[in-house]
Write a structure and sequence with these properties.
With 386 residues, this protein is α+β, with helices and mostly antiparallel strands. The strands form four sheets. Strands 6-5-14-15-16-13-18-17 form an eight-stranded mixed beta sheet.
Amino acid sequence: MDIKGLECLILGGGIGGLAAALALSARGARCRVLEQAPALREVGAGLQISPNGFVVLEALGLGEGLRQASVQAKAVRLCDYSGRDVVRLDLDQLERPWYFFVHRAELLSLLVEATARMGIPIETGRRILKVRSGARPSVEDQTGAVHAADLIIAADGLHSVARPVLNGEATPFFTGQVAWRAVIDSDSTAPEAQVFMGPKRHLVTYPLSRGRRNIVAVEERRSWQAESWSQTDDAENLRKAFADFGAPVRDMLARVGPVNLWGLFRHPVARTWHADGVALVGDAAHPTLPFLAQGANMALEDAWGLRRALDDASSLTGGLVAYQELRQARAERIVSAASRNAWKYHLSFPPLRMAAHFALRLGGSVAPRRLTGQFDWLYGYDITHD
């Protein structure tokens, strides 16, 4: 269909929403973004942009900006919780070695600046209360104002207002894991992610630009925590939880000040991604656990995938059908793979952990390309060309 002139209302000024606005506006759509926050603030922590997400940023004209704002990753190093190396995965062996560590605020800034250059309006302080699908879909915000468009793109995240309209209410379940996240000042500039694997716990860390380091630490526990990215915790609780880890981890955690804590919940991928002029993008369609670092990348893929599907269709309805067909199976595979990943890091039975680490060391020395090759299906995907 001819996207030119298509009126699009995008709910959410995050990565997926702004990427969708840019992708569709470049084809002539008239996009407007409604964001519930009173201002687009520099919040969040580190993100990993893998090659499948980077190709979208490149296609949007933001590849060089991302390079300048980030640290290009060269490896992922898996370590025992004592700090001893287990195996190093060389990211230069990827078919497209475009893997970057970036602060969410810096990526968001690139996207906001690009929307400003294209004249895409972003209205903050618009908390959406109702979404109505139909021949002329619309939303109602907290002031009672009604906003209508040809297409409503719900990029409104984990607690999407639009998702229940299309799918009904779904009850997520607690995975038995919580995660802390923090950003610290650091002198270490090695361009690699480190994963420290311990009994029922693991910690991931990697460098960011301007001498910072991102930390995500995961612990198994029975008690439930609120499913919120903004809940804070005492950093001392984090240090106690990882007190038996080696000096590299203890030294990093000694620098932690403000820290966030959130419970990890498993959500099903949405059965229905579209209906009568409403489409879901990003976490609104497929919330995922952080164990493959694909949340932002999937949102970028969705944004371009929606444009691609509409481009190739003869009607808006046909385009939305094609969008779900293009994206759903891949999203389900990624969400499932991320959900399975945590146990590999949390082996608590010493003989089993030793055997698993020995197998990783052996694989890294005998067939290192095979270790990185297991991710070809994920990182080698290029939605801008495939």
